[in-house]
Prior knowledge:
Helices cover 31% and strands 29% of the residues. With 191 residues, it is of the alpha+beta class.
Amino acid sequence: IEIGGEHKGIEEAKYVIDCEGIIGTIKRKLLGSDTEYVYTYQTYIEGAIDLDHQYFYAFLQPEFSEYDAWFNVKDNQLVLGVAVKSSANTARYYDSFIRYMKQQYNLIIKEQIKEDRWLMPRIRPGCKIDYAKGRVFFAGETAGWLNPMGEGISCGMESAFHLTQAMIENYESAAQIEAAYREKASSLHGY
Length: 191
């Protein structure tokens, strides 16, 4: 184990559960592959808009994003965001989206309170999930789980629950754990 570049010792474990999030350093080293990312940007705004605050709105028009754009309300603040393949494109898409929201829905921005930026895994057709490599198992975004609306914690928790149950029931065999994990998480994968 290395902490801050200093060797602290060796720990032994029968299995390792890797749920380190989107970055997935251990997974990348084990599988020799990089994750494609979606860059997201959203702002929290004090203002007004002619949309029902009870709904989450997704906008799929290609002029607003390279993935999707959205509007919702959280803690009485307007939340507007875009998702892009390259972070260099964020400002262009966000500005286009804001202009559209002003024109179509009378968006009024009194003050921008804060902004968020984060990464999500880019989900491809077929929704490939990496369940395990040997005795190392993957859960959450590390495995590739992501809610269709771009939210990751619910899938992270559900996949970890299924993996834990598979381990409890099949502790003596990594292959049986992986098979049980796949089976238990099949409805999550279908979703």
